[in-house]
Design goal:
Layout: H1 15-35, H2 40-55, H3 59-69, E1 75-83, H4 87-95, E2 107-112, E3 117-124, E4 128-140, E5 144-149, E6 156-166, E7 170-180, H5 185-193, H6 196-216
Antiparallel strand pairs: 1-7, 2-3, 3-4, 4-5, 5-6, 6-7
Helix pairs in contact: 1-2
Length: about 220
Amino acid sequence: MHNPTLSDRPAVIGDDQRTLSAVAGSLLLYFVAKKHKADSLLLLSGVYLLYRAVSGHCPLTAALKATHRNGSPNINIRTHLTVNKPRKEVYAFWRRLENWPLFMRHLENVDELDNTTSAWKLRLPGIGDVRWEAKIIKEEKDTELSWASVPGAAIGTTGKINFSDTPGNGTRIDVMLSYRAPNGAIGEKLSRLLTPAFRDKVEADIYHFKRYLEDAGVDRQL
């Protein structure tokens, strides 16, 4: 038999909140009636507050709890940059996944287990090493590379990189990345670290790629 956890229980509000909701809801409805003109936003707000007061239930809080049970929000990164290197060379460098920690400093290590599967390691303060496996799900040589973490991975990741030519024999790279903490105790710790600051760090690493490739040259890592 299932024993409900705190997050499973209805979002019940206290007497003080019910009283405040009743007063605020009544004032809003009185204001709408006095204007003799329907204001849908104020009307809905008043009805919602009165519902909270009468039922003692807060649907908004319940929805937030459901979101928490389903895991933390994604950290989504979408950016682009231009590298002064031919597209074929740039793609070849990205395709060798073991090159990524050379410029993506938030990554500790990437090992290619076979042609499509790779093992990743991310070091996070207060947690230590987080390891997971990912698979390449789409590959179009010199054009696109997409991957996703395997089911049950310690951290959920997906990504896609598109490569296109620019004038002057350069390459435009369009990058989309997503990190998501899993459910459970480890997921709660990870969710506290997957913040906008982490997103900014990953974006900085992507831009570091341009400097790394143009300054160091690509040939040594192909």
